[in-house]
Structure formats: C-alpha cells, structure tokens
C-alpha cells in the first residue's frame, strides 16, 4: 500500500473496535453514548460467535430436550407425552435463533445505535491505526483519535492428536450449525462444550460417546462433574473419563475410528471440544511488539499492558470466556474510553464504574446440561488455595419442598463456600434440574458482600426451589444475639 494509492480509503474517527461480537458491540454502544464517533470492524457476521455458533444455537438445541424431560418428570403431564422430540422442529428453532446465519438484524441494531460498520479483516498497522481488508481486497485505513479496542474473541483449538487434521473433525462451529443429527457421535473434551453437546445430541437421538482425559467440568466443584456424568449416562451417553485419545482416522466409508486408552470408538462424526485459543494470529500484533496468537493481558479498565490507547475486551483478554462477563467488561471499557477522551472523572478503584472488578471475585456461569450446573465465585479448593479460612455448607436440593413439587425424584446438591472470618459468601454452586436462575442471588450476595446475618432476613418464597437458601443458612447456623451484622 502506498501513501498515494487512490484505492485506499483513509478515515479518522474517535474509536475503532475490531470485532463485532457481543463484546465489541457493547463497547461501541458505550463509546457512542459517551459522545465518541465509533467504527466497528467485522470480518464475518455481526453478532459474533455467540449469536451464530456458540451460546444461542447451543442453548436452542438443548432446550427442547430439557422441556420434554421436565414434563416427563411430573405425573399427569408425563401421561400426555406420547412421542419423542421432533428433530426437524428443534433444528428449525435453532435456525430461527441464528436468523439463518444472516446478520441483517444485528446490522440494523448497529445503525440504530449510530455505530459505523466497516466489513473486512482488521489488522493493527501502527500507533492508533487499523487497516481493514474488505471483501473485495479494498483497503480502509482507520486512525483512532482516542482508542483502538480489540474484541476479536477466541477460536476452537485442535490438539495435536495424530490424524485429527486429516479426519475432517468438527469443532463447536460445525456441531452447533449442523443440519443433520449424526447417528453416532464421538466428543473429545469433558468441559462445558463437550458436556453440553453430549446432552443435546443424546436428546436428539445420537449415540454419543464422550471422551475426557480427566474428570468432567474440572475447575468447578467436583460434585458438579459427578452429577453431570450420571445425568449423561441416564441419557444413554457412554462417558469415558481419565481417557486419552491416541489417534483419529476416517475410513473411505466415512466412518471415523477414535483410538483411546479405553479402546476404539466408532462414529460418524467426531467433535473436538478441548478449549479455545486467542483470535489474535492475524491481527498485526507484531507491529506493536506483541506476539501473534497470544491472549492480550489487560488491567481492570481493559487497557492492554504497556499501552495507553489499546484495549482488549471479552474472550481475547482471557479473563472469563463468557458472553455476559465480556459484556460487563465492555460497559466498563466503553465508559472509561469516553471518560479519558473527554477528561471526565475516572472511577478506577475496585468496584468503580470504570473497572471490571467482578472478574476476580464473582464470575457466574451456567452449564446447560441435565442436571444444570450454576456456579459463581470460588470453589472450596480455590478458596483454600487463596488462603481463606473457609467453611463449607452443603444441602441436598431434593429435600427442598419446592424442588420435589417441581418434579418427582428431583436430585441435586447446593454448596456455599463461606469466609469464616468475615462471614460472607465467597462461592456458590447449585447442581440440579433447572437451577440456572438460582445463581444470580449468590452473585448479588458476593458482589454486595452481604453478611450471613443479614441474609437471614432475605426470605425465600414457599414453596420455591429458592428455599435452598434458607436450608443452607440453617446448616451454617443463625448468628447469636450481638453477632448479627
Ligand atoms: C459452543 C459454545 C457455547 C457457548 N455458550 C455460552 C453460553 O451459553 N453463555 C456464555 O456466556 N458464553 C457461552 N460461550 C462463550 C461465548 O461464545 C464467548 O464468551 C463470546 O462469544 C465472546 O464474545 P466476544 O465478543 O469476545 O467474541 P466473539 O463472539 O468470538 O466475537 C468476535 C468477533 O470478532 C470478529 N473478528 C475476529 N478477528 C477479526 C479481525 N481481525 N477483523 C475483524 N473482525 C474480527 C469475529 O468474526 C467475531 O465476529 C459459548 C462458547 C461456545 C464455543
Ligand atoms: N454455558 C456456557 O456458559 C458455556 C458453554 C460452552 C462454552 N462456554 C465457554 O467456552 C469456553 C470453551 O469451552 P470448552 O468446553 O471448549 O473448553 P473447556 O476449557 O471448558 O474444556 C476443555 C476440555 O478439554 C480438555 N482438553 C484440553 N486439551 C485436551 C487434549 N489435548 N486432549 C483431550 N482433552 C483435552 C480439558 O481437560 C477440558 O476438559 C469455556 O471457557 C466456557 O466458559 C461456556
């Protein structure tokens, strides 16, 4: 590209955001609201991974099976269920949630929010500068007066299992967008994607084998993975934990053989669900002295270490690979960029308006398996490792009146991890059918540092599953007179 090249469009704006996933969209929304002219660059679909190949399609694929099992667990309703899932209807509903992989609706949202879209692949090309290669090779050079925000997300990693690359394996993209349900499906990886997709496709009629090198859902409380393993087995999934995958081979017939330490698995398709890598390989990081392919390390206002104009928000900074947490970071980052640009007051102390403090203490996550797992904050092991004086209280969710009304044979467990010195909650985990909505109360209690004594005054309605809160408090004990705060 030469300076005088007439085919190069040059434009100066206040803020350039690279990546129009949920996080980039939210940063841009906040900078525009803060009075800054903002351009967003997108190489694929506006809405990002979450809208088309992750959160939305995966949850749509899971929901119908969950609703059917819920009805079957309630006598009276169960008798009314006479058939199986309507697979084409489930896939059609998934298609409606991805708008048929068409981003026109999200583009309209950008227009309504006064965010300018430049389609193409963005690369950092110098200080405060991004060069975009458009769909027909045209170049647009965007100079940012105030900030460049990298919100390019993450991509599925394919480990170096011999034969994987040549066998046409699927990742989360192909499984969430599939137009057919494979008769036999092997899934490698016992994390969130692996367990959710095993649940979805077992419900849709696949014969699923889940191969995990360790336990399921490592990183959460151990009992979460154990309950989910039992749930998968009840759905007919063959669960192999502590199992390594040595080779993947596709025969000319199309059949795939997965050789593992537990024997051979034969399948029609294999999904690799072994984690994510930073979407930064072809981003021009080297022009700034950074390493392509690395996650971008940031401070709590999302400024990349060593820069005063470069921000990294969402999956790409590796703080929490979750849409809601990335959008939380985006609100802080968008507002801090606007505040720094206009010279307004900054709030950078913990829990201030311009920092994502909750990333360190209160990241909620729901795993939409059956049973569901809803967790926030520290696990018991993480709290002990962090040096807290920990008290743990557990309770059987099936003993709560609201749970037994919800369905027969309700099975589940809840745990609070409590800082015994300050008597505040550090972490909470709920495992059971439809527990997703329970976790926000725990998030609020952790963020607000609400004392156990005060929580006794937060009365859950009878007979709801939320009465688990009262049972957990009873297990912990009521503060004596003079002790409550
Ligand atoms: C199967 C699956 C299910 C999931 N389910 C959930 C869930 O239920 N709940 C939840 O909270 N999280 C879920 N996640 C995680 C969630 O998808 C991510 O945390 C979220 O998408 C991150 O948003 P983001 O905007 O940072 O990145 P992305 O959504 O990945 O968006 C990044 C955007 O940047 C664009 N881009 C990248 N590089 C460039 C470039 N150089 N130039 C221009 N554009 C570029 C991409 O095309 C993309 O549109 C799931 C993930 C997977 C894989
Ligand atoms: N409901 C949700 O919120 C939701 C759903 C799906 C994904 N996500 C997010 O997306 C991210 C990615 O999910 P994921 O399941 O791909 O990653 P993950 O980190 O949750 O799980 C990866 C799994 O693969 C295993 N693994 C890693 N390398 C391996 C190898 N070489 N061979 C065999 N196994 C290997 C790990 O031990 C782990 O069990 C997660 O961080 C998660 O937060 C969230």
UniProtKB/TrEMBL annotation:
Pfam families: Pyr_redox_2, Pyr_redox_dim
Cofactor(s) demanded: FAD
Organism ancestry: Bacteria, Bacillati, Actinomycetota, Actinomycetes, Micrococcales
GO biological process terms held by the UniProt record: 2-oxoglutarate metabolic process
Disulphides: 50-55
Keyword Calcium among UniProt keywords: no
Annotated FAD binding sites: 59, 122, 152-154, 315
Source organism: Mycetocola tolaasinivorans
Keywords: FAD, Flavoprotein, NAD, Nucleotide-binding
Record's signal peptide: none
UniProt key word Transcription: no
Protein name (record): NAD(P)/FAD-dependent oxidoreductase
